[in-house]
Design a protein that fits this description.
340 residues, Rossmann fold, 2 domains
């Protein structure tokens, strides 16, 4: 299977390194699911991948594997030379996908599967019966035009990763992937992609309700991500502050109400979800890591899209509105979000 990773940050590097490592595992990998892995990257990360290949540090040790690396916004002929892919894994930040999407087009054939391994609400998600692209994540529908939904499989990643330098991934914990058809049900292509990841050592599962799985993960990190970025506090400290925890709970109730309107009803309470978060200890959310590193914050897909869907389905979101306003102003003040 020809696999191209678009974006070689923490998640893209994690997925790419393990998939490339499985390709060299010989008899341990079935021939029909082994992967030939390439990558689209940019800047210092591209240079590092061309020099060193994939590199990752985990509890299992040091991992390194060669990779064909091309510029994701550079020479169109270079990207086209990779050829049509069987699987394209999109692992860029939401705010970067608009620029990267045109580079994906040469990789798509009639049967190519596109797997967005991204945070928050993806561009294809819609809002219930309304299929109009979400302005918060796909203004003008440019991404949907470049990556038609018929190519897409939904994906949720459960892993904690970071980068210690260009092209170097640190995997802390988690190997979970949930994969499924956007319209629900089970398909042969979804089964093949799950099998590929299982062979590479992931805990990959096939979902018949991937939209629910995406919403459930978002429900848990919609508040902790931006609040941690604004305060600089680890997740345990957010939950230990009764006023902050109460604000997060109120926003989660609003998101749960939206979920009920779009077929993604959540049976748990926010307090139930916080108990799960507490088990992870004093961890830094991905958005806090981005804020500390001076990287742009993914507010549109994690908070803005929830607010937009709420407006479409008629659910009032005063707490989510406040969360978006405060976190957006914080990010703009620190140069981590585009100016108004």
């Amino acid at each position: 299977m020809k696999v191209c990773i678009v974006g070689a940050g923490a998640i893209g590097g994690f997925l790419g390194t393990r998939l490339a490592g499985s390709a060299g595992a010989g008899a341990h990998v079935s021939a029909h699911v082994s992967a030939h892995v390439s990558v689209l990257a940019r800047g210092a990360t591209l240079a590092a991948l061309r020099t060193h290949g994939w590199r990752m540090q985990s509890s299992e040790g040091w991992h390194q594997a060669p990779v064909a690396a091309s510029a994701d916004a550079g020479d169109a002929a270079e990207v086209a030379a990779l050829g049509v892919q069987d699987l394209v894994i999109v692992a860029v930040k939401g705010q970067s996908l608009g620029a990267a999407a045109p580079s994906i087009a040469p990789l798509l054939g009639p049967d190519t599967v596109v797997l967005p391994a991204m945070n928050g609400v993806p561009w294809w998600f819609g809002a219930g019966a309304d299929d109009t692209p979400l302005a918060s994540v796909d203004p003008g529908g440019a991404i949907a035009a470049a990556i038609p939904q018929r190519h897409v499989l939904g994906c949720v990643v459960h892993a904690s990763t970071s980068t210690s330098g260009p092209g170097v991934v640190v995997h802390k914990m988690g190997h979970g992937l949930i994969i499924g058809e956007p319209e629900g049900g089970v398909s042969g292509r979804a089964k093949r992609v799950v099998e590929l990841f299982v062979q590479a050592g992931f805990k990959a599962t096939l979902s018949e309700r991937i939209r629910y799985d995406i919403w459930y993960k978002l429900w848990g990190n919609m508040t902790t991500n931006p609040v941690s970025a604004m305060t600089g506090a680890t997740a345990d400290r957010l939950l230990d502050d009764p006023l902050v925890a109460a604000f997060c709970i109120a926003a989660m109730h609003e998101a749960a109400a939206i979920g009920r309107r779009i077929g993604c009803e959540i049976d748990e309470t926010p307090e139930d979800r916080h108990k799960i978060t507490r088990k992870l200890g004093a961890f830094k959310t991905s958005m806090l890591q981005d804020a500390e590193a001076g990287r742009p914050l993914e507010l549109d897909s994690i908070v803005g899209a929830v607010r937009e869907i709420g407006q479409r389905v008629g659910v009032a979101t005063p707490n989510i509105d406040a969360l978006l306003g405060l976190s957006r102003l914080f990010a703009r003040t620190h140069g981590l979000y585009p100016p108004a």
